[in-house]
Specification:
Structural class: alpha+beta
Strand order of the largest sheet: 1-3-2
Number of helices: 3
Strand content: 5-15%
Radius of gyration: 22 Å
Number of strands: 3
Order of helices and strands: EHEEHH
Largest sheet: 3 strands, mixed
């Protein structure tokens, strides 16, 4: 399947679009990392440390866009508002973790160590 990659930027920050789209190329490293091409960095006004989001459509097209740190996730905001409202209306429902639940959680993840620089195993790729 051929993959198509498109770069998106918020309309408010877009300069007039050129008639021809750029076709930049980058290479994946052994850890599936790549450098964002200069043309894409300029178009999205990316800086070091910025986060980018990959949005995949069922057709196989992938859009890359800058994640604004000051933008809130509307689903998360609505969920947190719901929790806040429920806690205010029913404070009697708040309970602490039982010791058994805390012990179970610790047993599940307590001894797991992660090395972010380690090469991925074939089953993790």
């Amino acid at each position: 399947m051929q993959m198509h990659y498109f770069v998106t930027t918020p309309l408010s920050s877009m300069e007039p679009l050129m008639a021809t789209l750029s076709q930049d190329v980058s290479t994946l490293t052994d850890r599936y990392q790549t450098t964002v091409p200069l043309g894409v960095r300029k178009l999205l006004k990316l800086n070091k440390g910025d986060k980018i989001r990959y949005c995949t459509e069922p057709s196989g097209r992938v859009y890359i866009e800058l994640m604004r740190t000051d933008a809130e996730d509307p689903a998360l905001g609505a969920f947190l508002d719901l929790i806040e409202t429920d806690i205010a209306a029913h404070p009697e429902r708040i309970r602490g973790f039982s010791g058994a639940l805390q012990d179970r959680l610790k047993a599940l993840v307590g001894d797991i160590e992660i090395d972010l620089d380690e090469t991925l195993s074939p089953e993790d790729e």
